[in-house]
Design a protein that fits this description.
556 residues; alpha/beta; Rossmann fold; Helicase, Ruva Protein, domain 3; Zinc Finger, Delta Prime, domain 3; 4 domains; five-stranded parallel beta sheet; three-stranded mixed beta sheet; 28 helices; flat
Length: 556
């Protein structure tokens, strides 16, 4: 293959340590260990896709076997070993893709091959990519050789180099036998400068804003960034510069300004404009999940804009967008952003079970308008009847309340803000509403209302942290029914005519009613065994066992 015909990801793949981008610490550490002849038996490179794990593995293999030595590592005019390693056809450097060879037999073949020393190089090296794909049996077969690799007559030895994107899937027994290196995402500024240089070398007519978009999409992956740049250059072969809008069309991204305008109309309560804007975005080919991801990003900026800065290296917002978001953010309370965030996450989960995702997004946007409590086409009287979001906003003005909302579940928030408006106007005198002042009264009410399942959950699976008027805090319990919070919130509203906040807490909480009952019974048995009556019975019937005690005062 001619050099010019190669895709950019291969053409600009690093061949020596100095070409590695954003991995300075790892590069210097490995170089020092090779120079000082203190190389480990096995290297383990981990990180996201496209940051240079396999590339680094090959460079290490070259550094160990280069005929010119590590200080004069071949770059252009390569020696026999370096050229063969670069082309993945060196007889002593075996590369294996664990994604296709996962079994124990493959590893045994590898171990058998390791018995024979290197033919032309100093070190025999096994590079195993995606090593986490190996089976448990394969890993076990590898352990002994990994810890005590064979040495050869030429003074060299066997080296393993592993690469993985899923470090947690590798047994700790294997990880502990390796020298681990975590390759980080490449910083945006470094990646931007690198891409600009490649663009100039390839004579690509691409604007800086378009390159910034590539940097953002690639998320720190050099390979992804080069592939996107390659696509941009190929797609834009005329003399006109590829600007941001052109790049957005090529990569399927839409202008963030459209989302900012969408938020403005949500805050203004203009349902018609909101739906028109979303449909225009959807018609551009933007998938619902992509839309929600970008929606969350803008929402993050709205919440945290005061802690961010805008400069020439910003890869998300330009100056105009920054100022617009800052202005919008100043008009909306933080509590609203927190509620928006919860609803967005919930909607993303709903998309997996809903066939028409587009309609789901539209309903989601309408719900947000109601949450804000400022829907433009309803009267002020109706808004007052739907004032829950506004009451929430007022209650969240202090820091303590803001912290509390973080502990609420999505279902709970859903119950608070999405009740049908007719339900909010219930005549309390008609509903025979009651007052619940304690946890025991709540259980008693469930018994009276024949809510057997709810009563069972309260007695068996609820560890009470605190009980106040219209607020219950409980600790997390895995045995608790998934719909418990939703049901208890709804029932409390039906019974009392008031909103209740049910909060999940990390605090330990009290024992459940069942646990208390069991403990009390155990204590009664222990106390009974200390009585004279029990001791006399044991003297007469030494094999007797006390199995139960009636709930009566025990007297000697």
């Amino acid at each position: 293959m001619k050099e010019n015909s190669k895709v950019l990801a291969l053409k600009y793949r690093p061949t020596v340590f100095k070409d590695l981008i954003g991995q300075d610490v790892i590069r210097d550490t490995i170089l020092s260990s090779i120079i000082d002849n203190k190389t480990p038996n096995a290297y383990l490179f981990t990180g996201i896709r496209g940051v240079g794990k396999t590339t680094t593995a090959r460079i290490v293999a070259k550094a160990l076997n280069c005929k010119n030595g590590v200080n004069k590592l071949c770059e252009k005019n390569m020696c026999e070993n370096c050229e063969a390693i670069s082309n993945s056809n060196h007889i002593d450097v075996l590369e294996m893709d664990a994604a296709s060879k996962t079994g124990v037999d493959d590893v045994r073949d590898l171990i058998e091959f390791s018995r024979y020393g290197p033919s032309i190089a100093k070190y025999k090296i096994f590079i195993i990519d995606e090593v986490h794909m190996l089976s448990k049996q394969a890993f076990n077969a590898l352990l002994k050789t990994l810890e005590e690799p064979p040495t050869y007559k030429n003074g060299g030895s066997l080296k393993f180099i592993f690469a993985t994107t899923e470090i947690k899937k590798i047994p700790v027994t294997v990880v502990s036998r390796c020298q681990r290196f975590d390759l980080s995402r490449v910083k945006s500024v470094e990646l931007f400068n690198f891409l600009k240089n490649v663009k100039d070398l390839e004579k690509g007519n691409i604007s800086d804003e378009a390159i910034k978009l590539i940097v953002k999409i690639s998320e720190g992956s050099v390979r992804d960034a080069l592939s996107l740049l390659d696509r941009a250059i190929i797609s834009h072969q005329n003399n006109k510069e590829l600007d941001l809008k052109g790049a957005q069309k090529i990569f399927g991204y839409f202008d963030k300004s459209l989302l900012i305008d969408l938020f403005k109309n949500i805050f203004d309560g203009d349902e018609e404009k909101v739906l028109q804007q979303y449909r225009a975005i959807y018609d551009q080919g933007v998938e619902p999940k992509v839309f929600l991801n970008d929606f969350l990003e803008v929402l993050y900026y709205l919440k945290n804009i005061n802690s961010l800065k805008i400069d020439g290296t910003n890869f998300s917002l330009n100056d105009e967008q920054f100022e617009t978001i800052k202005e919008l953010s100043s008009k909306v309370e933080n509590s609203v952003f927190l509620l928006f965030w919860q609803f967005t996450i919930q909607t993303m989960q709903e998309l997996d079970i809903i066939s028409n995702q587009n309609l789901s997004i539209e309903m989601f946007l309408i719900r947000l308008i109601y949450i804000k409590g400022i829907k433009s086409n309803i009267s002020s009287e109706k808004i007052e009847s739907l004032d829950i979001p506004e009451r929430l906003s007022r209650s969240f003005k202090n820091k303590e309340a803001l912290d509390q909302i973080k502990g609420q579940t999505i279902d709970q928030i859903k119950n608070i803000v999405q009740e049908d408006k007719d339900k909010l106007n219930i005549d309390k005198s008609v509903k025979n509403l009651i007052e619940i002042r304690s946890f025991d009264e709540l259980i008693k009410t469930c018994d009276q209302k024949k809510e057997i399942k709810l009563k069972y959950e309260l007695e068996n699976n609820v560890n009470l942290v605190s009980f106040e008027k219209n607020r219950i805090e409980i600790s997390f319990n895995e045995d608790l029914s998934k719909d418990f919070l939703k049901i208890i919130s709804s029932k409390l509203f039906d019974w009392t005519g008031e909103r209740w906040i049910i909060t999940l807490s990390k605090k330990q909480g009290e024992l459940t009613k069942k646990q208390i009952k069991v403990k009390n019974k155990k204590d009664m048995l222990e106390n009974a065994k200390k009585t004279k009556t029990y001791k006399k019975i044991k003297e007469i019937f030494d094999d007797a066992e006390l199995v139960d005690v009636k709930n009566e005062e025990i007297n000697d």
